C-alpha cells in the first residue's frame, strides 16, 4: 500500500513566547531552553477540529489525485474533536462529501495519528478498504488551563492528513507499525471532567476540570524510553538498520525529549526532523504535520525509509516505518 498524498493545516493566529509572557509568569528564555518552542498556532473561538482538518484533507486528496467519493475509510486521531459525539470522522465525511466511507475516531493522545494510520493499514491489508483517509487533528488550546504556566506554554493547534491506497508496488508504503499502551500511566496526562466520570457541572467548570492536567517530569522519562522502544521494535520488524533510516520524525513535544531519544539511540541529529519551534505540541497532529512538511521541504525522496514515532496520553506510544 502507498502513502499517495499528505496535507497539513494550522490556524492563522500565532501565539509567541513573548505573548505568553503577558499571560502567565514565564519567559521566552525559559520556554526556549526547556522546550525548544518559540511560537504555536491558536484556533479562532469559532474554529473547531473539523474546520482545520478539512483543509488538510483537501490538500492530501489533491496531491493523491483521489476524489472524496472514492474514500472508503476515514480514521481520525484526536482527543479534541468537535464534540464528544458524533465522531469528527463523521463530521469530515459529510464536509468532504465521502458517502461511501466508514468513519470513526481514535483516542490515543499524541500517538493518535500513528494509531489511526496503523488501523487504516490493517483495513487495506485485509482488503476491507481500498482508499483510506487518515487524519490527526487537535485543538488543545480549547482544553488548556491558561492560568497554568507548566502546561499552557507547551500546546498548539493543528491538523494533518494522509491518503493511503492499496497498491502492489513491493517494499513501498507502510513497512511496519508498532503500537503500545500502559494504562497505569493514565494519571500523568488527562482531562478530569466532561466524561461519564465527572460530567460537566458548575463545580467542574469552576475548578477548571475541563482542562488538561499533566505531570511533566513523569511524562518526560517515559517519552524518551518509549520513542526509543518504538524505533527498536520497528527495526526488528523490518530489515532496516539505523543507518537505513533517512529521516526520523519524532512527536514534537519537547526538543530535549527529542535530543535525549536520539542520543539514546545513537541516531545522527541531522537526520531528525524538527518543527517544534513553529507549532509547539499539536498532539495527534504533530507527526503528520511534520511528515507533510518534511516531504514538501524535499527532505524525503522516492525510495527513502522514514520512521515516525510518538508517545502520548493513555499512556500510549508507537511508530510506523514507511518507504516512499
Ligand atoms: C513540562 C516540562 C517542559 C517541564 O520542564 P522541566 O525542566 O522538567 O521543569 P520542571 O517541571 O522541573 O520545573 C522547573 C521549574 O520551572 C518552573 N516552571 C514550569 N513551567 C514554567 C514556565 N512556563 N515558565 C517558567 N517557569 C516554569 C517550575 O515551577 C519549576 O520551578 P521550581 O523549581 O521553583 O518548582 C518537561 O517536564 C516536559 O516537557 N515534560 C513532558 C511533557 C510532555 O511532553 N507532555 C505531552 C505529552 S504528549
* Secondary-structure element pattern, one letter each: EEHHEHEHEHEHEEEHEHEHHHEE
Question: How would you name the CATH homologous superfamily of the largest domain?
Answer: Thiolase/Chalcone synthase
Q: Structural class, please?
A: alpha/beta
Number of helices: 11
Q: Low-confidence parts lasting 5 or more residues at pLDDT below 50?
A: none
| Molecules bound to protein | coenzyme A
Please name the CATH topology of the largest domain.
Answer: Peroxisomal Thiolase, Chain A, domain 1
Head-to-tail CA distance between termini? 10 Å
Known CATH architecture of the largest domain: 3-Layer(aba) Sandwich
- Assign an overall shape: globular
Average of the residue pLDDT scores: 97
Count of distinct structural domains: 2
What is the CATH top level name of the largest domain?
Alpha Beta
- Largest sheet, strands/sense/barrel: 5 strands, mixed
Q: Number of DSSP strands? A: 13
Q: Give the helix level as a range of percent.
A: 25-40%
